[in-house]
Amino acid sequence: MIPVLEIFGPTIQGEGMVVGRKTMFVRTAGCDYRCTWCDSAFTWDGSAKEDIRQLSVEDVWHELKQAGGENFDHVTISGGNPALLRHLGDLIDLLHNNGCQVALETQGSVWQDWFLNIDDLTISPKPPSSGMETDFSKLDDILSKVEEADRTTTHTSLKVVVFDKADFAYAEHVHQRYPQVPFYVQVGNPDPLTDEQTNLVSGLLDDYEALVDRVVASSAMNNVRVLPQLHVLIWGNKRGV
Amino acid sequence: MIPVLEIFGPTIQGEGMVVGRKTMFVRTAGCDYRCTWCDSAFTWDGSAKEDIRQLSVEDVWHELKQAGGENFDHVTISGGNPALLRHLGDLIDLLHNNGCQVALETQGSVWQDWFLNIDDLTISPKPPSSGMETDFSKLDDILSKVEEADRTTTHTSLKVVVFDKADFAYAEHVHQRYPQVPFYVQVGNPDPLTDEQTNLVSGLLDDYEALVDRVVASSAMNNVRVLPQLHVLIWGNKRGV
Ligand code: SF4
Ligand code: SF4
């Protein structure tokens, strides 16, 4: 059984290595981190406890088909930290057997063997502003397993969210530690609870421009991609889109 | 010699298959099309005639280094239609020899053998609203050459700009004709001359949401990516950024 909080779509992936990709979302409950600026804190802070359902992989597929019909061939599994779920491999197999590609994002604190079956795997270690500390030996281990399976340049990416100077230095460090892994830097959502869409968008675009400027000025950050969160630009902080 | 209109950067690629990628830009002069909504009409309408310089490939590299220093490893060649320039292959070789990856966008009206040396090749056939007509036998020819060289899924993409319903039907047609080629749909810039940044951004985001809705509703458009133009969201219609 998989603890599921949300199943929705089709929509687009708003960030990272397959930004813009038409996809469905499955959001799992539970996280081993407590990032200060977590934009899905409801997955772990108890506030949506009564919405968590224990679903079989067949149930998940049934609900995906119900929501998406014939209009999807890609599913994004997000959290929380879906890497906490050992049995997610069964869902990934079922999705593949039904002609879907699968994307997943995790902070890189836990390895699962089914990482090697994910088509678009985003490892997103958390910068200092999150209040979390990165276990680099764990991250080394994950990325060397991906490398051994020859999936570094095709199915994997690193993504770091940047809020401030210290975060940017952290991003440079991560990129230099794993230069062969496609690298994404992303602006953070400064206010994941506001419903003031106009201010949110103009603030995000200002932050995005500032991050572009930082990347442009850094010779340690050449082979990188800098992205905003497209879904926030369109829908603000609304859930389920 | 290469007819060059602009050399600038580092900045980010605002659209297409390497959206967000830190890059330099080289803009060449001349186009065989006359799209109604062309956002770089100055490359062919005579209005920037006195800015066109005939540069050797060494000159182009020298100016790139002068502008970018050590802060780049990727160069985007845009136009106009750079595919009109038979000798661009020399520039691509020089860039590769200096450790740069090379991206190029063209509408797909002309083949050049050096297409097979481009790391990120975007073929962007023009939809009905452009006023241009696509020569599909030419497009078939280009994409089969790319396929023969086994570069379809790794180094190539198709991109169609969508302004209206007819454009969307055209995009569906192109995607179905070449289903194996990574496919991008993009909102057009409704007003490539305005300097009213705020209205431009909110209009673009509305158009982007509408395009996402169209893609979501179409089962012919599952394996696609829908993107806005990030540089327009940040900088509006300003040139040289
Ligand atoms: S790792 Fe992700 S889900 Fe977990 S607390 Fe941090 S931002 Fe939230
Ligand atoms: S093909 Fe491109 S450069 Fe040429 S007229 Fe059309 S939009 Fe402008």
Q: Which terms would index this structure?
A:
9 strands, binds iron/sulfur cluster, alpha/beta, 241 residues, homodimer
**The CATH homologous superfamily of chain A:** Aldolase class I
Question: Which sequence of SSEs, written as H and E, runs from N to C of chain A?
Answer: EEEHEHEEHHEHEHEH
Question: Which architecture of chain A per CATH?
Answer: Alpha-Beta Barrel
Give the overall shape of chain A, derived from the CA principal axes: globular
Write down the oligomeric state: homodimer
Q: Please report which band the strand proportion of chain A falls in: under 5%, 5-15%, 15-25%, 25-35%, 35-45% or over 45%.
A: 15-25%
| Annotation, overall tally of beta strands of chain A | 9
Overall domain count of chain A = 1
- The computed structural class of chain A is alpha/beta
What does the main sheet of chain A amount to? 9 strands, mixed
Secondary structure tally, helices of chain A: 7
Which cofactor or ligand species appear?
Answer: iron/sulfur cluster
Using CB atoms under 8 Å apart, which protein chain pair has the greatest interface? A-B, 40 and 40 residues
**Mean of the pLDDT scores of chain A?**
95
What does the radius of gyration of chain A come to? 17 Å
* Spatial gap, N to C terminus of chain A: 25 Å
Q: How much helicity do the residues of chain A have? A: 25-40%
